[in-house]
Amino acid sequence: MTLKEIGKNMWHDYFVIVTGMLLSEAVFRQIFYAEAIIEHLELWRLLAGGWLFCMPHFIFYSRTELTKKQWLVRLAIHFCTLEVIVVGSARYLFGWLENDSAPVEYLVLATMVLMVYAVVMIGGGRRDRASADEINRRLGELKREEDKGSV
What we know:
There is one protein chain. The protein is an all-alpha fold and 151 residues long. The chain has one domain (3-150). The chain has helices spanning 3-32, 40-54, 68-92, 103-150. Helix 3 runs antiparallel to helix 4. It is elongated. The mean pLDDT is 81.
């Protein structure tokens, strides 16, 4: 994946990630900290966190086309890296997790990350499929025009 493609994907994924973060925070706080009040600074953290959580997209950078195996390895590395970044940020930047947080809080957070990750990957797959379909449609049109010209 080229840097241009990564940048485009990051731009599209940012909004899905921030929305997922907002929903995840709402659910997480409802479950574990229902009495907590969200301050305006928290909203800015979510917006900044969206960019932070887009940074692992660079794991997919390659000057050549990745094989399926290479892509799957990078996907696994990407997911693990993202989990570490999110859980670390939740604990040290956002203050969602305390030293005395129950393991279930970490498990719920990791599950929410997996859910947001799945939504982002599905959205990216649909974008990629739509691009491929458009390219194939245009190639088909060119081939038909070429076939008409040679008759």
